[in-house]
Design goal:
globular, 7-stranded parallel beta sheet, single chain, mainly beta
């Protein structure tokens, strides 16, 4: 509770790495200016499904998942979380892969950027569930707000505003 992860770097999980059914609970935590190859702010791998409430991910960067990376059936639960000004090649705010299906409620994605999936990138049977989430001013070459590749997200009462595709 009330933890801050700032200016850390790693190959995986610049701010935090959760592996093999690791599922911490985080409340009012901040991930700022962390960097990694995958999961600039947080990396969740192999059935790791943390619970995050009122957490912020700002100015994190990675090749995959600037704010958060979820892979191999990792499905975190996020409530009232914000992803702002994160950057990546794939999934500026969040990257989901290999049957990872996070549940997000009342989360916001603002001013994130990537080549693919400025706000969120979903790949390989990942099916996130988003309720009352907002995507504003995210940008990418493809999928300014969200990019889906062999994935089927479920969105309810979500808003996409000013999402921008840089190149057609």
């Amino acid at each position: 509770t009330n933890c801050t992860f700032t200016s850390n770097s790693a190959d995986y999980g610049g701010g935090m790495y959760n592996y093999s059914s690791s599922s911490p609970t985080l409340t009012n935590c901040t991930f700022t200016s962390n960097s990694a190859y995958a999961g600039g702010g947080m990396y969740n791998y192999t059935f790791s499904s943390p619970t995050l409430t009122n957490c912020t991910f700002t100015d994190n960067s990675a090749d995959y998942g600037g704010g958060m990376y979820n892979s191999s059936s990792s499905s975190p639960t996020l409530t009232d979380c914000t992803f702002t000004s994160n950057s990546a090649t794939y999934g500026g705010g969040m990257y989901n892969k290999s049957s990872s299906s996070p549940t997000l409620t009342d989360c916001t994605f603002t001013s994130n950027s990537a080549d693919y999936g400025g706000g969120m990138y979903n790949k390989s049977s990942s099916s996130p569930t988003l309720n009352d989430c907002t995507f504003t001013d995210n940008s990418a070459n493809s999928g300014g707000g969200m990019y889906n590749d062999s994935s089927s997200p479920t969105l309810t009462n979500c808003t996409f505003t000013e999402c921008c595709q840089v190149d057609p």
